[in-house]
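Table S2 (text version). Query chain:
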Amino acid sequence: MDDRTTDAADPTGHEPGAVPGPGHEPGHEPGPGPGPGRSPRILHLEWGRTEVEGMPPGKDFVLHPGGGHPWDWGLHGTRHVPGIRPGDVRELLARGADVVVLGLGMQSRLQIAPETVELLREAGVEVHAAATPEAVGIYNALTAGTRPVGGLFHSTC
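Corresponding structure-token output:
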């Protein structure tokens, strides 16, 4: 269910309630990919749509050092409950992320399965889990640093 308010006009032409990423200006299109070892930045987020550096817009994303791709929930049986599955985060770990950011949806409806929490704990990675708008801010700030960061981002409920 999309319960954004639609009475406010956005001069950038984006949907009301949209969260522009740092450096995103009207007419700015994602440039080349992030380069080897660097995680792509999220340029824009709104309900059901995410723009990622160097990738076509999509809904949900898996992002890691060196790239990313759309997040296919069917691959590991992900559902809002029990939530993010171990298979969803294994790719992030395999790609070298030692910081993981989990975007739990615009209304934080996506949960994290207990076995996923245990996998991340055993891997010894730093984990940030938050509503997706907040998670995007955390993730983008981390991409500016030197630590390898990965993330899963859900752009609806």
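Notes on Table S2: The first helix runs from residue 86 to 94. Confidence is low (pLDDT under 50) at residues 1-32.
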